[in-house]
Amino acid sequence: MKAYVIANVDVQDPVRYQDYVKLTPGTAAPYGGRFIARGGRSEKLEGAVPANRVVVIEFPSYEQAKAWYDSDGYRAARAIRQSASVGSLILVEGVESPGAK
Is domain 3-93 given the CATH code 3.30.70.100 in the classification? Predict the structure, then answer.
């Protein structure tokens, strides 16, 4: 079952953050990661959490998403993100589509 990493990030250092943007796709690809949304237009419809830079990465499974997040390759990119922004990442398992077997 697919899983999704969802990030809501407030970029504090746009120049440094670009290093993260360049590195991340190469770290996710070996784990089957595919960007669904990456910082396009967003708005808060409800609740108290603002919609900043929202990113959604799809993975083939929850386990592969966790393996990516914990990988040496992403660990280096993550350090850049954390130094250039504040925000949150969550991992959520998808649902099986009605026609899937």
Answer: yes
